[in-house]
Amino acid sequence: RSSSGSRTPRSRSRSRSRSRSRSRSDSRSRSRSRSSTSSSRRTPHRSTSTSRDRAHAAQERRPFRPEFKAHLELRGHAKPISQVRVSPDGRWIASASADGTAMIWDATTGAHIDTLVGHMAGVSCLAWSPDSETIATGSDDKAIRLWNRTTGDPAHAPLLGHHSYVYCLKFSPKGNMLASGSYDEAVFLWDVRAGRLMRSLPAHSDPVSGIDFCMDGTLVASCSTDGLIRIWDTATGQCLRTLVYVDNPAASSVCFSPNGRFVLASYTDSCMRLWDFINMPCTVKKTYQGHVNKNFSVGGCFGLLRVAFVASASEDGDIVLWDVKSKEILQRVERAHQGVCFWVDVHGETGTMVSCGQDGRIVVFRH
């Protein structure tokens, strides 16, 4: 209340005016009181909102980290699984095993859809066509087989021509070509529709361990246990680049970056290296360390969620994810497999990561 409202009236003659004064004063006091009360009632709301805003802002500033967690475990193969891949549409998973079969699984439920039987020896590698309708498998029986994903039946007669184990496969972005790498040290380019060999590249002096197409299909990258990475023109078969690291460790897998400017290679000195092959001289821009790769061909790939990252399998059974730019380890999935983890594949649009290993298991992770 105001000070005038607290004084005692001295005479009746002034009581009316004082009454009015008190009335006005009380009114002002009550008005202030209501305003103060209303303000005090609103204050916690503003404070809570501000706290939430600050927390949200802090969360936005915090570096993003993938948080993949094991969601499904798929069993069915009788021997180690050498490779596993998610279909381009994210709906299916295909696996290749030393038991001589490939299997198709539902990526959402983990249900076993089909078993592809036809190879006479272990299946080392596989690839999905861009439309997710065809699966190519390569085997120690030297053959490449194409399968209809819907029916599980062969889509063509086997593609024959390699003189040793077929170790890596990749479809071109348009799906009209298939590249294969073999222990016979050659890279073959196949016409998928005609089922015939288009071009043979005498690529390396040791087994070809990895292969990939760039985003527009004009280039193929191959790597080998001879330590070389080579970039090929698919139209002419010309070798455009040869990438050699100083210590020349064996290379176990290779893939183009999503923007097509770099290639990522896994080496058996437990390093993954990101090469700039566009600008001469070709140089290593980033080196990613923290996994184990000394004795086996283990696979790595790029992934994209809110940030771009590199993922790799590891011989100690772990899966390791790095930030592409900072090289910081964003996540380590420890003991994803008992024994060697051979392969990891990431499908960013569905937030799915899959891995396979020596223990004959496929693990499906969700972000």
TrEMBL record:
WDR5-like beta-propeller domain span: 74-365
Keyword Endoplasmic reticulum: no
Residue ranges that the Swiss-Prot or TrEMBL entry lists as coiled coil: none
Biased composition (Low complexity): 34-50
GO MF terms, alphabetically ordered: histone binding
Keyword Cytoplasm tagged: no
WD repeats, residue ranges: 74-115, 116-157, 159-200, 201-242, 244-276, 309-332
PANTHER family with a match to the protein in the record: WD REPEAT DOMAIN 5B, WD40 REPEAT PROTEIN
Cited function: Involved in mitochondrial fission. Acts as an adapter protein required to form mitochondrial fission complexes. Formation of these complexes is required to promote constriction and fission of the mitochondrial compartment at a late step in mitochondrial division.
Name of the protein: Mitochondrial division protein 1
Source organism phylogeny: Eukaryota, Fungi, Dikarya, Ascomycota, Pezizomycotina
